[in-house]
Amino acid sequence: MTPVVEISADAETTGSRVAERIAALIEAKPDAVIGVATGSSPEPVYRALARHIDNGLDASAVSWFALDEYVGLPLGHPQSYRAVLERVLIDPLGLDAASLHVPDGAAADPDEAAQAYELALAGTTVDLQILGIGENGHIGFNEPGTPFTTTTHRAGLTRSTRMANARFFDSVDLVPAECLTQGLATIMRADRIELVAFGERKAAAVAAALCSPVTEQCPASILQTHPDVRFGVDADAAGGLREMHCVPG
Questions:
Q1: Positive or negative CA dihedral for 69, 75, 80, 85?
Q2: Pseudo-torsion of CA 242, 244, 196, 186, nearest 10°?
Q3: 8 Å CB contact between 184 and 147
Q4: 92-109 pLDDT, tens per residue?
Q5: Could you tell me what percent of the chain has a pLDDT over 70?
Q6: Cα–Cα nearest to 175, from 71, 82, 37
Q7: Which of 54, 95, 218, 229 has its CA 20 to 30 A from that of 185?
Q8: d(CA 126, CA 193)
């Protein structure tokens, strides 16, 4: 099935539209399992979803599964993805922190922690997965060249990804060099996928993901083969689609 592309005027409009679909899912299935991403792109979704909570949506039975986590940050580190998701999702929505599941990046054995997280995900069905996209086409922390068959694993981060994330740390040298991430095969098991991307810097990655051949050099291109995926982008992030005369859906 060809991915649907929804182009909005700005990030807040996209966030509101995605949040409406998430709210409808929760109303239909109060114990839904939702995969969540970090980074700036999904935050408009979480802000809009908080407004649905304020208006009476009950998300108390929802389970939230993070895409990834840095390896080596101590528990409670403010830039760990658990801490970030607690700040932007759990606390604003008034949710129980126990409903949030994140790979254990502080574990003594990261490979064992990755296997444990994969087993947890294999024991459930993710009803809806929220994704961002990296400028090099990565989803989760699956960098270019990651096999499409990968499940949750320990991975190294490219210099470009670490530099993109350095704005959250005092320097790029403090950005962890490794992570635990859901693999591409894990992500693809989700029933529905909502990818959000904003800004001119994401335009080339969005265009490659949607309009170029499916290749491991652009991990997000695998989404072309998913039966129910939607790209929510602003006009700037859609610029590459226009240049390639490619607007799926």
A1: positive
A2: 160
A3: yes
A4: 999 999 999 999 999 999
A5: 97
A6: 71
A7: 95
A8: 9
